[in-house]
Specification:
Elements: E1 3-5, E2 10-14, E3 21-26, H1 35-40, H2 51-57, H3 70-89, H4 97-105, H5 112-118, H6 136-139, H7 141-156, H8 161-174, H9 178-181, H10 195-202
Antiparallel strand pairs: 1-2, 2-3
Helix pairs in contact: 3-7, 7-8
Length: about 200
C-alpha cells in the first residue's frame, strides 16, 4: 500500500481503490516530509516477471528467493532507477530499493538480487508467492504506483521504458488497460499541469 503524508510522523493507509482511508498509523520514520515523497517511496514489489511459474505452481514457490532471480532483479533495478529519476525531477529525495529495505528491515544488501537471496525475514514462512497475476502485486501496484511514475515521467520528458513495458504486460495479463484504469494525471486532476505547479500542489 502507498503511504500518504498526514503529518510529520503520522501516515494514513488507503485501500485498493485509494479513495477511503482504512487505517491510521503512527510511525517513527516516514521516508519523506511531503505527500509525493511517501507515495513514491513505496519501492518494493516489482516482481511481475514470475507469473508463468506462479500460475503453473499455484503459488508454490518462494516469491523472493526463487522468484527474484538475477535477471528478474535486473528488471526491478531498472524500474527502481526510473522511479528515482522521475522523483529527482520533482525535487524528491527518495530512498532506493536497497536503502528502503535498510530503513524498514535493517537489512544491508548490496543489490536487489542480494536482498532477495539473503533476507532472513522474507521467504522464511514457507511458500509465499501469488497464484495469479490478479494478485495485489499487479492489480494494485501496477495502476497505483507504476502508472503515476510513467505519467509524471512523460510530462517531465523522462523516458521510463522498463516501467512502461511492465504496465503493458500487466494489462495483457489481466485484460485491463492500466494506462486508462490506473492513477492517471487526468484522474488526479493534474492533466496539463507543469512541474512547478505539481510541486506547489503537493508540498
Amino acid at each position: 500500500m502507498c503511504l500518504f503524508s498526514w503529518g510529520r510522523n503520522q501516515t494514513v493507509r488507503y485501500c485498493a481503490n485509494r479513495d477511503t482511508p482504512i487505517e491510521a498509523l503512527d510511525v517513527e520514520q516516514c521516508p519523506g516530509d511531503r505527500t509525493f515523497e511517501c507515495e513514491y517511496d513505496c519501492s518494493s514489489r516489482y516482481r511481475r516477471s514470475q507469473y508463468g511459474v506462479a500460475e503453473s505452481r499455484k503459488g508454490g514457490f518462494y516469491f523472493y528467493k526463487e522468484g527474484m532471480s538475477e535477471s528478474v532483479s535486473k528488471v526491478q533495478q531498472r524500474i527502481d532507477d526510473e522511479r528515482l529519476s522521475v522523483a529527482k525531477a520533482l525535487d524528491l529525495n527518495l530512498e532506493s530499493f536497497t536503502e528502503h529495505q535498510k530503513t524498514f528491515y535493517n537489512i544491508d544488501s548490496k543489490s536487489i538480487y542480494d536482498f532477495a537471496q539473503t533476507t532472513p525475514i522474507h521467504s522464511s514462512f514457507g511458500y509465499d508467492a501469488p497464484k495469479s497475476p490478479r494478485d495485489r502485486y499487479v492489480s494494485e501496484d501496477c495502476p497505483y504506483l507504476l502508472v503515476p511514475v510513467f505519467e509524471f515521467g512523460r510530462i517531465l520528458g523522462i523516458e521510463t521504458p522498463a516501467t512502461e513495458s511492465i504496465i503493458r504486460i500487466a494489462s495483457i495479463y489481466n485484460d485491463v488497460d492500466y494506462f486508462k484504469e490506473g492513477r492517471t494525471l487526468d484522474k488526479l486532476g493534474l492533466s496539463g499541469i507543469t512541474r512547478e505547479q505539481i510541486l506547489e500542489c503537493v508540498q
